[in-house]
Amino acid sequence: MQKTSPTRDHLLSVSRLLLDTTQQHKEEQNAAKVLGYDGNQNSSSAHSSETGHASPASTSASASQPKEVTADELQNLIASNGLINGASASSGSHVLFATDEWFATADNLLLDSPPTFVPDLYCPQGKVMDGWETRRKRIARHDWAIIQLCPSARGLKDVAALELDTAHFTGNHAPRVSIEVAKLSSDDDSSLQDDGWMPGAASRKMRGGGVQGTGRTPEEIDEAEQAVRSAAGGRGWVTILPQTALRPGYEESSIHRFVLDDVTRSRAQAATHVRINYYPDGGVARLRVWGKPRYDSGTTATSTSNGSSNNSPIAMPRNVSATSVMNDAVYSSASAVTKEVDAATAPPAPLEIKSNWVAFSAEPYPHPELSSSDLGGAGLACSNKHYGVPSNLIQPSYGKDMGDGWETARHPDRPAIWAKDTKTGLMDTDLMDWAVLKLGKQANLGVSRIILDTKHFRGNFPESVQVEGCCASSNTEEEDAAVCEATPDKKDDNGAIQWFPLLPRTRMGPDAEHVFDRTSGSIINGDKPVTHVRVTIYPDGGLSRVRIYGDASEPDHLQSHL
Question: Which among 11, 207, 209, 16 is positioned nearest to 96, based on CA atoms?
Answer without folding.
Answer: 209
